[in-house]
Amino acid sequence: MQTFTVFNHAGGAGKTSISLNVGHELAASGLRVLLIDLDPQASLTGWLGLTDVQPADTVYPVAVDDEPLPTPQQRYGLHVIPSNMNLALAEPHMLGAVGAQGRLSRALAAVADQYDAVIIDSPPASRSSRSWVPSRPIG
Ligand SMILES: Nc1ncnc2c1ncn2[C@@H]1O[C@H](COP(=O)(O)OP(=O)(O)O)[C@@H](O)[C@H]1O
Ligand SMILES: [Mg+2]
């Protein structure tokens, strides 16, 4: 399993478009793809038509309570962990907790045999990228 984080400090830079399109193309070529929406604005979630998302459906419990990944939703051949506005409250919890930065990474390791690619759509803020540490930089 390879994990890719799509990140740019700016909003409107194409992060969500890239996450969705690359994810779709990888899935169309036969790979098992998990998309994770890490942006409280939840554009990726909305674009996939996922509504009525509860905090327990998002990575909030992973980040705050060190829970396993929630069961993903399924759309267009993709597995998706959606977001909602509540996710904005996760980061303050994480910043005060020892080891919190690795929680998403550890939760993903537990499903490593289930996916070929994980694509994470980030919020447009540098602080957030340091808080979650979900993957190594590439390029
Ligand atoms: N390659 C592209 N060409 C033209 N418009 C694009 C392209 N990629 C994204 N956009 C548009 O730019 C806007 C912002 O893209 P988005 O993926 O939401 O950025 P971000 O996630 O970085 O905020 C959206 O309206 C999207 O449709
Ligand atoms: Mg976006």
UniProtKB/TrEMBL annotation:
Domain AAA: 1-125
CDD domains xrefs: ParAB_family
Leader sequence residues: none
Stored Pfam families: AAA_31 (PF13614)
SUPFAM superfamilies in the cross-refs: P-loop containing nucleoside triphosphate hydrolases
Alphabetized InterPro entries for the sequence: AAA_dom, DNA_Partitioning_ATPase, P-loop_NTPase
Protein name: ParA family protein
Source organism of this protein record: Deinococcus multiflagellatus
